Amino acid sequence: MSVIVLVEHNQGVFKKKSFEAVQYASKIADSIGGTVTAVAIGSVSTEEMETLGQYGAKKVLHTSDVRLDNFCSRAYTKVLAAAAGKENAKVIITLNDNTGKAVAPRIAARLKAGMVAGAVSYPDLTNGFVVKRNVFSGKAIAHVNITSTIKVITLMPNTFAIQKGTGVADIELLDVALDDLDFAVQVKEINKTVGAVPLSEAELVVSGGRGMKGPENWYVLEDLAKELGAATACSRPVADSHWRPHNEHVGQTGGTIRPNLYIAVGISGAIQHLAGVNGSKTIVVINKDPEAPFFKAADYGVLGDAMEIIPQLTAAVKKYKASH
Ligand SMILES: Cc1cc2nc3c(=O)[nH]c(=O)nc-3n(C[C@H](O)[C@H](O)[C@H](O)COP(=O)(O)OP(=O)(O)OC[C@H]3O[C@@H](n4cnc5c(N)ncnc54)[C@H](O)[C@@H]3O)c2cc1C
Questions:
Q1: Distance, CA 136 to ligand 1 centroid (Å)?
Q2: Which of 32, 44, 53, 81 is the most exposed place for a label (fewest CB within 10 A)?
């Protein structure tokens, strides 16, 4: 019995969240008595694919076709379905990110599989195959029992800490006949933020809201983020006002993140914002209004003006780094 997992890479380098997905698949394989096969699509080196063994993949099926270097949901689904058929997969894992959200429902429909989107737990096998996911903007947790023979799970990134082991995965080519129809919808252009920590994978995030007053003040958050090695995020009105790019917007209608540390500056803490960040391990709220709802969700709260507090925090981080 096999568990297959779709792994994602950025120009041939696997994303950290893919290691997490492989490790997640590996634990599931252990509990159902199977092995993990990772599915790598597009141009990626043998050495890079072998590293997936360090997270529990026994084998990597690789489909290489230059047309697959840009994401295409239809073609990716076809490759994943071919891999699932070849391995007689009973569990199929993707990440709950843009790629996974596009591919997983398609594969579930194709294979008549039940699916849980945004899993935050390992399956509990004591009474069925029950996976937890957050619902109602993170206000409740649903326990979903997948009863179909084949099960599809999209894993919420940053849910589990990854631990590197020593294995080396075997690599096998997976030849899949892809025709023009599979590439009928094409990604024409990809604009990537260069140099910054990718928000979806960041362990530390510094986020700003309307309380920052305007884009001209963002340098204080960027300075802090730089010192911490953190990614930057923002509330929706900030992105809507074009103070920050939309890829930084988190919440119900933006990205969902689960960093180890989320520093929310000048953000009121509306439920729609919390929906995207309340899985963060530690939340620090900096706000000048003691009644701001975000304080209720905070592990640590600092009451005061962001423009006074953040430079002091940055200076303290600098000092700490210099003395360690
Ligand atoms: C359907 C729907 C979906 C939505 N989706 C999202 C979403 O995905 N993400 C999202 O973020 N929002 C979303 N919203 C909007 C959400 O309801 C809030 O309006 C929004 O989150 C508020 O943004 P904010 O906290 O930056 O601004 P505000 O609510 O204006 O809060 C600003 C905060 O800054 C504080 N402040 C002001 N000055 C300072 C200072 N000098 N120093 C420190 N603190 C200061 C204030 O006390 C206040 O708490 C959605 C709304 C709807 C209806």
A1: 19
A2: 32
Residue by residue, DSSP assigns 114-132 as EEEEEE-SPPB-TTS-EEE
Q: What is the CATH number of domain 2-183?
A: 3.40.50.620
Q: If you ran DSSP here, which 8-state letter would residue 161 be given?
A: -
199-322 belongs to CATH 3.40.50.920: no
Query: Ligand 1 centroid vs 322 CA: distance in angstroms?
Result: 35
What mean pLDDT comes out for the span 84-105? 96
Distance 35 CA to ligand 1 centre (A): 45
pLDDT range class, residue 193, cuts 50, 70, 90:
low
The finding on whether 246 has its CB within 6 A of some atom of ligand 1 is no
Flag whether pLDDT at 44 surpasses 80. Answer: yes
* pLDDT of 218 strictly over 80: yes
Q: Whose CA is nearest to atom 4 of ligand 1?
A: 272
Give nearest CA residue, ligand 1 atom 37: 211
Convert the pLDDT of each residue in 271-303 to its tens digit: 999 999 998 999 999 999 999 999 999 999 999
Q: Is 251 in the pocket of ligand 1 (CB under 6 A)?
A: yes
- Rounded to a whole number of angstroms, the CA Rg of the chain reads 21
Q: Are 14 and 7 in contact (CB under 8 A)?
A: yes
Helix (H) or strand (E) holding 295: helix 294-297
